[in-house]
Give the backbone structure.
Amino acid sequence: MKDLQGLPLSGGLSTGGEQVELLRFDNLVVVPWKNGGGLTRELAVHLDGEIHPEFLWRISMATVAGPGPFSRFDGIDRTIAVLQGEGIVLASRDNEIALRRNSDPYSFAGETPIDALVVSGETTDLNVMTRRGYFTHVMKRVVIREPLAIEVQCDEMMIVFNGEADVEASESRLSARPLDTLTGLKRGTRLRLLPSAGEEIFLIELSRASA
């Protein structure tokens, strides 16, 4: 079996026609927030200027250092999950929810005014945004304790690792570390995840909206 796990920054594996890439967290571009309250690392973005002047979907990680309002995104559906840290409290006019490391992902409309309060220290969260009417998404938190076979059933999938696991596809193999992201998984792609122990992953499913 071909072993690509020695690649230091990123790596790719063949899945029978598609090129899957493992993005290393340490190699992501870091963008400070204008208000100084955090940092953003963009994982992937889908743009199509012929359809819409702004993104159709966007996936990123944010390290939040202090309290403050979420940016407003009209026409966007959002989901957030905590990857590291003690968590955050999201407060809107009608609701307040605490998100921690073991919480399920939380979805909300981008138009909703939300203030975020960090529980303690810094928190790193995972954010998915899709433009309503063009794309939909589902984020799932899964803890894997034994080999997991996956066949992609949506238009595109990304897997964010919050633990260590090997990824096998065809005759290739990659080793994922915490906060690495597997991209390029198209419908019909098959792979296996082999966790080191009980490892947390987040499955992000992206699909074009029905006409």
About this structure: Residues 1-10 have pLDDT under 50 and may be disordered. The CA atoms of residues 50 and 77 lie 21 Å apart.
